[in-house]
Amino acid sequence: MSVRKHDDRKHYFFLSSEETQAFAADYATGIPTGSVIALIGDLGTGKTTFTQGFARGLGITEQVGSPTFKIVSEYEGNHLILYHVDCYRLKNGADFLNIGGETLLNPDNGITVIEWADIIEEILPAEAIVIHFNRIPGKADHRGIIIEEHGNEIIST
Ligand SMILES: Nc1ncnc2c1ncn2[C@@H]1O[C@H](COP(=O)(O)OP(=O)(O)OP(=O)(O)O)[C@@H](O)[C@H]1O
Ligand SMILES: [Mg+2]
């Protein structure tokens, strides 16, 4: 078996929340169980909006929200569970482990999506998919995202 380091950065640009969600729903269908997706970006850049579309793509009909008091929410999809984590009120990775976060970093029955993942950066798995969210100056409904995928790719067997 031959394995090559896989290091990929893709840029996308959306003109509305609906576009962001439609992309996220489609993107979700290609993400394997066990994945961790780290969302990084300032307040209101669209992390929760993206997660709502992502959940829809997994067949989740329940509304995904951003309750201020809850750090982890679980949603049951067609074939797996979506763990939606919001680290905004945490201080660091140790804080996350203290609330029992470790299993969420290796979700064998689901996918974990983490908002404000930069706060727990030191404990994120190396193979986590990282998505950066940005506003576009002067355009209220435009957003740019950059998806970074790291890992090993099997190129022959
Ligand atoms: N193209 C777009 N993509 C995503 N959200 C957009 C877009 N255009 C406008 N918005 C609006 O921007 C806001 C994004 O809020 P959202 O809660 O998703 O951000 P967030 O990054 O999760 O913020 P927080 O850091 O507070 O959790 C929503 O009101 C959404 O409707
Ligand atoms: Mg949010």
The radius of gyration over CA amounts to 15 Å
The CATH topology assignment is Rossmann fold
Which CATH C-level class is it? Alpha Beta
Looking at the structure, what is the overall shape?
globular
Measured by DSSP, the beta-strand proportion falls in 35-45%
Counting structural domains, the number is 1
Query: Helical residue percent?
Result: 10-25%
Unreliable segments (pLDDT under 50, ≥5 consecutive)? none
DSSP strand count: 7
**Main β-sheet description:** 7 strands, mixed
Sheet/helix structural class: alpha/beta
> Strand order, biggest sheet?
1-7-6-2-5-4-3
Under CATH, the homologous superfamily reads P-loop containing nucleotide triphosphate hydrolases
- SS field, number of helical segments: 3
Bound molecules: adenosine-5'-triphosphate, magnesium ion
Descriptive account of the structure:
This protein is of the alpha/beta class and 157 residues long. It has one domain: Rossmann fold. The protein is 18% helix and 39% strand. The protein has 3 helices and 7 strands. The protein has helices at residues 17-28, 47-57, 93-98; strands spanning 2-14, 36-40, 72-76, 81-86, 110-115, 129-136, 139-156. Strand 3 (72-76) and strand 4 form a beta hairpin. Helix 1 (17-28) crosses helix 2 (47-57). Adenosine-5'-triphosphate binds next to helix 1, helix 2 and strand 7.
